[in-house]
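Predict the 3D structure for this chain.
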Amino acid sequence: MSNKQKVNTEQYLVIKNLNNYMKSHNLPITLDKGGICHALSTLYIKYVLDGKEKEFEELLAYIAQKIPIPGKQYLDEKLFILIEKIIALQVSNDHSTRNKYTQSNSHEQLDVKGKNLQSIFKVGLQTSHENWAKIMQDIDLQANEVMRVSTLEHTIAIARDENGTYKVYDPNNTRVCQKFDDASQMTKWLSKNAFNFSLLPFGSKTLDMNIDVISTESPIARRFPDKNKLFDDYLTPSQRELTNNKGGGLHFAMTFDDAEAVEYILKDKKFNRGEFVHTALCGIARDSENALAILINNRDKKEHLGDLQAILLHAISSGKYRCMQKLLEIEEVKAFYHDYIKDHPTKMLRMAFSGMNEQSIDKVFNDFITHYDSANNLTKTAVSTLIDISISKKNPVAITILAGKINYFDKKITDHAQRLTFIKQAIEHNDPLMVRTLIKNLNLSSDELNCLNIGVSMVNKYNVEIFTTLKEKGFQFSPQADDLIERKQQQSIGVVKSIGLALTRFSEFLTQQNKIKVDHDKIKQNFTLFKERNSTLRNEGIGPAEPGKSMVPG
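Done. Predicted structure below.
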């Protein structure tokens, strides 16, 4: 890459070009602004630890500005690896539970040469940039470590080169790396630029941030600053409280699952009920099981029992499986949970399906079966409701779980109009995977499918994979609709075959982008994760017994 050529790798350009590419191929996937800085910063960490920082910079520059890469061997393969991981790491609040990761632990799904990335030291504080400079110096970041630095609004990454120079990757910056000779210069820049959301010319007096040192190596031989000493020196009384618009001690500890910090901060602290619930919900929002465990161990066991019951239901309905499991370790909460399933089974299942987490759904279903012998006892109304929730949440995995628990699932819903309504809803949600999953698990015949009314306007509006699936299953399109499907297929990668297969390679797309007209109205709904595409093809699992009469209360 020429040093004379100005390179702008700002995340806005990366998002715009990736989304245009996916839309031009009729893929129902859209990168979101929320969480993209976290995804890019975490990927930067992986590339640095793998000794491929230059490759990361070149690929990002290529995506953002079509900057040519010397020796384009395996370019598209490298681009697809990068793009797939960006999507997988974009764990915004609405989708984090589907991927079973949150922003505090998303790095755990990455590895370098077979070694998983792991957090080896973390601390969150609100203090001056001068104090942060001293903390950074004491941490003394090593060559096999990279630091992920987060506020409540933004995430960046920090590494050091062989000369000890600090390198800051800020996805919002036009340059991949901003370099600093010492920690004092760097933290001053962070205060004035990267984390200066007020746009004050001289920055904020304090830096409110959480740092997480990530490596592939064990921290056993590594000496980090004493966290208790850091809290003794820098934790102000206000940081022991939870404030919505400020990070600092307790807020960061619950958000980023720092059990050590929670234990220090809650030492000798007494909560009123409101404070306890507010703090617990902060941890559940990020599925911070370790921080939550410390909090509930410090509770007033009698006073907060009712609160824990409500918190458990919230964890289930928001899909926070790790926190759900942690709460169920408390005998009184576990007893409440099982009583709730016995008294309100369909309500509990609705909550689990609303949370979208397949582990939570599976557990609640298994516990339901324990109490009621068989999932076949669910009423048709209850099954229909769970299907409706799954369609609205664009969660085909939930349908597969449901079908696997109920014998003769395809005969549970016998009303043909209702069966077709499910397909109509999936089409209206522009969800090819859901259409495929429903047809398979409801065993919809070609005669049933041909009762649908699908014209040219509908084929033009929605993802072509929906209509490819319908055609495979025997739906008869008009000649005009058939012709449109064939023309759209020529552009489409295909949802199920999306990874690693592109009729228009990404590198070619970028160089020809000005010649390609993109219809931005074609795809409005989004899947943020490619991984779901294969989950829906799981085999059905339950044996041949006939469904029994419903014996389940509402």
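The longest helix spans residues 75-89.
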